[in-house]
Design the sequence.
């Protein structure tokens, strides 16, 4: 019996060790992070004129690369359709997906992935042509609605129709580009997805001002990067890098002042965050400058948001609930200690 228990204990230890070694070791060995992203949603992830990927979700991935590889450019981006974004992570095709993905119970508990930290609080809405003369989603009875396969939008659309006694015909497409194209050519009366994406995609239409986003928000869509289920260390790394970007905004740490703050700040919270005291890096299997590198690379959460959605951008999406908790929003960084 004693030998049996010893063998079981050794086996368990080896299993745990193999899981812990997992993604971090693989990423460091190949020298790059493989990240799944959307196929092209302005503001979130889209290639620029030189083919360089830019966007809110892109910056989240670059922050992780900076923390674990010391280089935010060491990321290989893999564009994924909505129906691919879960399986790409669970199968190991990508190390991380940072791609407008809603954290739901089914995905988290049944589909082989773990969500990390909510980076964007969103909700589903509708876009229609102003020519239809409709000012509310409650008035689109009998409408054909373009929607993307593999998203929460399909179920939400059906729920909205049933709960409001509306007959809505869903026209389902594999990708958002196809769905938007069908809407823009008149195959659908309306297009539905997250409100932030509607605002983003509307800018790509030939005449954006001919289209309007309905006032109704019909669901909760907490968007979060996700990793493969079971690799707790990797989940912790992604979680705390992003949490650190939020904490940086709370504490006034920016890309421009992070190095100075590390050397001169007398704030014990800032000192721990930036590795001047404590030993937070060891908790993640990283060195003490992990968060310094992430902030230096992309800035704090507010800087990232403003860079891609702020008033100086074409999108100009008000932060709303994506403000810090101290400003009436929902973002509340967990303590780094």
Sequence:
């Amino acid at each position: 019996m004693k030998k049996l228990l010893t063998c079981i204990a050794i086996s368990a230890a080896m299993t745990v060790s193999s899981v812990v070694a997992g993604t971090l070791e693989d990423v460091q060995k190949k020298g790059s992070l493989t990240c799944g992203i959307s196929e092209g949603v302005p503001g979130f992830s889209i290639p620029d004129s030189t083919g360089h990927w830019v966007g809110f979700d892109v910056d989240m991935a670059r922050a992780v690369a900076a923390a674990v590889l010391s280089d935010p450019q060491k990321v290989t981006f893999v564009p994924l359709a909505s129906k691919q974004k879960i399986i790409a992570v669970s199968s190991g095709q990508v190390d991380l997906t940072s791609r407008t993905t809603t954290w739901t119970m089914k995905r988290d508990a049944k589909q082989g992935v773990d969500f990390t930290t909510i980076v964007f609080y969103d909700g589903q809405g509708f876009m229609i042509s102003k020519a239809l003369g409709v000012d509310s989603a409650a008035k689109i009875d009998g409408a054909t609605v373009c929607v993307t396969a593999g998203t929460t939008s399909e179920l939400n659309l059906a729920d909205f129709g049933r709960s409001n006694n509306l007959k809505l015909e869903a026209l389902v497409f594999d990708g958002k580009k196809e769905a938007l194209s069908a809407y823009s050519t008149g195959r659908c009366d309306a297009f539905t997805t997250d409100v932030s994406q509607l605002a983003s995609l509307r800018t790509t239409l030939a005449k954006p001002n001919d289209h309007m986003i309905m006032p109704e928000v019909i669901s909760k869509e907490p968007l979060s990067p996700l990793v493969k289920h079971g690799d707790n260390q990797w989940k912790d790394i992604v979680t705390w890098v992003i949490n650190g970007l939020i904490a940086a905004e709370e504490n006034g740490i920016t890309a421009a002042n992070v190095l100075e703050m590390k050397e001169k700040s007398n704030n014990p919270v800032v000192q721990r965050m930036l590795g001047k005291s404590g030993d937070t890096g060891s908790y993640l299997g990283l060195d003490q400058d992990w968060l310094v590198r992430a902030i230096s690379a992309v800035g704090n959460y507010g800087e990232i948001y403003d860079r891609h959605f702020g008033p100086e951008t074409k999108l100009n999406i008000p932060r709303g609930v994506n403000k810090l908790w101290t400003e009436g929003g929902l973002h509340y960084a967990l303590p780094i200690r």
